[in-house]
Design a protein that fits this description.
With 662 residues, the chain is an alpha+beta fold. 15% of the residues lie in helices and 33% in strands.
C-alpha cells in the first residue's frame, strides 16, 4: 500500500497553499459570475509519437443569457512547450458548432473527432496537424455517440441510436404522444472503413444488445461490449460484458454479469486480457477493477482489497501493466498496475477535483488533466520517471481572485472509530483561533471530494470561502476512494450522517466552525444528504438542496431505477425508512430547493415533494425550477443564477445584514 498522502505532499510541495499573486492586478472577492468565465478542459489524447496532445476546451460564453451555452472545441498543443494551444477548425461553418472526442489514428497520421457542424454529431478525420479539409466518416441519421479506431487504422467502430420506426415518425407528425416502453431506441455498434471512398456502414450488434461501451480486439475480429438487454429503464441496472464477433454480430461469450460502471473497457495488446469494472452480485452500487480472459473463466480482481478506487485505466504496450488513475481518500495519482502481481507503483501524484480526471499514454509519457488548488484543470505531461510539467494555462484570470486555502482533514466516527477523510477550505484572510460561519457540502454522486480546484456551479468551496465562509467537504462512508467494502455501505444513511456530524464536531472542537452559524447543501447525492441531515437534526441554520432524492419509493416507481433496497413493492417500508420525506415532520431548517424541470434522473417532482413538505411544516423555504435543464445545469446563465442564490441564501441566514461583494 502506498502512503499516498505523504507522496502527494512531497511531490507537490507548496501547491496546497494558494499563490494568488498576479503582478499589477489587485485581487478581489469571487462573485458568482466568475464561474462562467472559466474554460473547462477535458478528454486529453496524446499522439502515438508523444509530440502533440489533442484535448477539448469548453469556452466561456460571450453572453450570460438563458439558452446561450458553452462551445466545445478540439485543441492541439505540442509537448515540447513550443507554441501556444490552437483550435482545430473542421470547416468554415463550424464557428457556432461543437467538436469533441479527438482520437489519433494508430499510425499517428490522422486525427479524428466528432463535430456537429452539419447538424447531428458525426465523425470526421483530418491530417494529424489539424490543418486541411476534414473528411466525414459516418452518416447515421441520429448521429454518433462514441467511436474508436480499429487497431490497424483501416476502419472505425461507432455507436449510434436507432432512427425512429416509421410508426413513431407518423405519430410524431400527428401528435406529441410517446408510447412508454415502446419508443425507447437501441444503441447499436457499427463499423465503417476509414479510407477515402469508404461510405458503407456495417451493423454489428442486433436486438437484445443495447450498447454502453465497446473495445476492439487487437486482431480487429472481435469486440468486447458492455450491454443492457434493452434500452428500457427496468433494464438499466442489468449490465453484462460480452464478446461479439465483428463479422456475424453473434455473441461469442458472456464474460461477466455484474457491472455498474461502464467507463472502463480496454483490451490488452497481446489479446489475453480485457480490463473492466466489476460489481458484487449483491450490490450494483460498489465496484472494483478487474481483468478477464476473452476465452472466459473467472475474473481477476486488481487492488480489490486496497482502500482506493480506480477511475480510469489503459493498457501499457507490454500487456503486463495497466496505467490507472486512482483516487485514495482525497488525493489522486497515476499508477502502474502489475496484472500478475496485483500491485501498483506510483508514476505521478496529481491534483484533481471531483469529476475532473482523464489521461492518455503512449507507453513512454502521459498527458493528463491536472490542476492546482488555485487553478482549474489544464493539460499536464508526465514522464514515466515521475517528472511532470504543465503545458497550458487556460484560466489566468483566476489569479485575480482571492481564494481560500485547501487542505485534507481527517477525523473519526465517534461510534465505530472509522477514520474518515475530507477537504477543508478556509477564507483567504483566515485567522487561526477565530470561529467562522461554516457550510458543509455533500459530495455529488459517489465521487469523493479531492484536494483540488473547487470552483464549479455544483462545487461551491472557493466561492463561499472567498466570501468569508469555512467550507467543509466530508467524504462520509459510501463514497468511492475508500475501497469497495466501504462503498457497499451506501444506503447506511445513519452511519454516514454520524460521519458528517462528527466532522462538524471536530471543526467546532478545533475552534474553526461557529456552531451557531452552520449551513449545509449540495447537488444530487449531496442534496439528498442535505435533506436527510435536516430531517434528523436541527443543528443547521440554512440548507440548499439541488436536485435531491427526497422519496426513494416514488423515485424508483417513476424512473424504473434506484432499486437499491430490493423489490420495490414488497419492501416499501425499507424504501420509506431510507427517504428524507418520511421524516419531514422533524425538519426546522430554512431550505432553498433547486431543480431542473426536465430532470429525468431525479424528476422535479422529488423537489416539489420536499418543498411542499417543508411548507406543510411551516419551515421557511423557496423553490426555483430551471426550464430546459436536466439533472445537470447546462446553461452558464442558470449556473450563475444558482451560485448567486446559494450565496445569498447562506448570507441571509448565517450572516444577516451582509450583502455579497459585487
Amino acid at each position: 500500500m502506498i502512503m499516498l498522502r505523504s507522496l502527494v505532499l512531497l511531490l507537490l510541495g507548496l501547491a496546497l497553499a494558494p499563490d494568488n499573486t498576479l503582478e499589477g492586478q489587485p485581487q478581489r472577492t469571487m462573485v458568482p459570475e466568475d464561474i462562467a468565465t472559466v474554460r473547462l478542459a477535458g478528454d486529453v489524447q496524446l499522439s502515438p509519437d508523444g509530440r502533440v496532445v489533442a484535448f477539448v476546451v469548453q469556452e466561456a460564453p460571450r453572453a450570460l443569457r438563458p439558452g446561450v451555452s458553452r462551445r466545445a472545441g478540439v485543441w492541439l498543443i505540442a509537448t515540447d512547450g513550443a507554441g501556444t494551444p490552437r483550435r482545430v477548425v473542421v470547416a468554415a461553418t463550424d464557428s457556432a458548432a461543437d467538436s469533441f472526442s479527438p482520437r489519433w489514428s494508430p499510425d499517428g497520421r490522422s486525427l479524428a473527432l466528432i463535430s456537429n457542424h452539419e447538424g447531428a454529431p458525426h465523425v470526421y478525420v483530418l491530417p494529424a496537424d489539424g490543418n486541411g479539409p476534414a473528411r466525414r466518416l459516418t452518416w447515421a441519421s441520429e448521429g454518433v455517440d462514441g467511436y474508436a479506431w480499429a487497431p490497424d487504422g483501416s476502419a472505425i467502430a461507432y455507436t449510434a441510436e436507432d432512427p425512429p420506426l416509421p410508426e413513431r415518425r407518423r405519430r410524431a407528425e400527428q401528435s406529441t404522444a410517446t408510447v412508454v416502453g415502446r419508443d425507447a431506441a437501441y444503441t447499436r455498434l457499427w463499423t465503417v472503413g476509414a479510407r477515402a471512398g469508404d461510405t458503407v456502414a456495417t451493423l454489428v450488434t442486433r436486438d437484445s444488445l443495447h450498447v454502453e461501451n465497446f473495445a476492439w480486439s487487437p486482431d480487429g475480429r472481435t469486440f468486447a461490449v458492455i450491454v443492457h438487454p434493452t434500452p428500457f429503464p427496468e433494464d438499466q441496472e442489468r449490465i453484462a460484458l460480452v464478446t461479439v464477433d465483428r463479422g456475424t454480430g453473434r455473441v461469442v461469450r458472456r464474460l461477466a454479469d455484474h457491472l455498474s460502471l461502464t467507463n472502463v473497457l480496454t483490451w490488452s495488446p497481446d489479446g489475453r486480457w480485457i480490463a473492466f469494472m466489476e460489481s458484487p452480485a449483491e450490490s450494483a452500487y460498489a465496484w472494483w477493477f478487474a481483468v478477464v480472459s476473452p476465452n472466459g473463466g473467472p475474473t481477476r480482481p486488481l487492488l480489490k482489497e486496497d482502500s482506493l478506487s480506480v477511475l480510469a485505466a489503459t493498457w501499457m504496450p507490454d500487456s503486463r501493466h495497466l496505467l490507472a488513475e486512482i483516487v485514495q481518500g482525497t488525493h489522486t495519482m497515476l499508477s502502474s498496475v502489475d496484472v500478475t502481481a496485483g500491485t501498483q507503483r506510483l508514476v505521478a501524484a496529481i491534483v484533481a477535483s471531483q469529476g475532473d480526471f482523464g489521461f492518455s499514454s503512449n507507453g513512454r509519457r502521459i498527458a493528463y488533466l491536472g490542476q492546482a488548488v488555485t487553478s482549474p484543470p489544464d493539460v499536464w505531461l508526465a514522464e514515466l520517471d515521475g517528472s511532470v510539467r504543465r503545458l497550458t494555462t487556460l484560466n489566468p484570470q483566476v489569479a485575480q481572485w482571492r481564494l481560500g486555502a485547501v487542505r485534507e482533514l481527517t477525523w473519526r466516527n465517534s461510534r465505530d472509530g472509522l477514520l474518515l477523510h475530507g477537504v477543508l477550505v478556509t477564507p483567504p484572510d483566515y485567522v487561526p483561533g477565530r470561529r467562522y460561519p461554516t457550510i458543509v457540502q455533500g459530495h455529488q454522486g459517489d465521487l469523493p471530494w479531492y484536494v483540488g480546484w473547487l470552483g464549479r456551479w455544483w462545487s461551491w468551496g472557493q466561492l463561499l470561502a472567498s466570501n468569508g465562509y469555512v467550507v467543509f467537504l466530508p467524504n462520509y462512508r459510501g463514497v468511492s476512494g475508500q475501497g469497495y467494502r466501504l462503498h457497499m455501505t451506501l444506503g447506511d444513511w445513519g452511519a454516514a450522517l454520524q460521519d458528517l456530524l462528527d466532522g462538524v464536531d471536530y471543526l467546532v472542537g478545533e475552534g474553526i466552525a461557529d456552531s451557531a452559524a452552520l449551513g449545509i447543501g449540495g447537488w444530487s447525492n449531496g442534496a439528498f444528504m442535505t435533506e436527510w441531515t435536516i430531517t434528523h437534526t436541527t443543528r443547521f441554520k440554512a440548507a440548499v438542496a439541488e436536485a435531491g432524492h427526497s422519496n426513494f419509493f416514488s423515485l424508483a416507481g417513476a424512473t424504473g431505477g434506484y432499486r437499491m433496497f430490493g423489490d420495490l413493492y414488497e419492501r416499501r417500508i425499507v424504501y420509506d425508512a431510507h427517504s428524507p420525506i418520511t421524516f419531514i415532520r422533524q425538519a426546522r431548517t430554512p431550505t432553498l430547493v433547486l431543480h431542473g424541470e426536465g430532470d429525468r434522473g431525479v424528476p422535479v417532482t422529488q423537489g416539489y415533494e420536499f418543498y411542499n413538505g417543508l411548507k406543510a411544516m411551516n419551515v421557511e423555504t423557496e423553490m426555483v425550477v430551471y426550464q430546459n435543464e436536466g439533472h445537470g445545469i447546462g446553461s452558464p446563465a442558470n449556473q450563475v443564477d444558482i451560485n448567486r442564490r446559494v450565496l445569498e441564501w447562506f448570507n441571509r441566514h448565517l450572516r444577516p445584514g451582509r450583502t455579497p461583494d459585487r
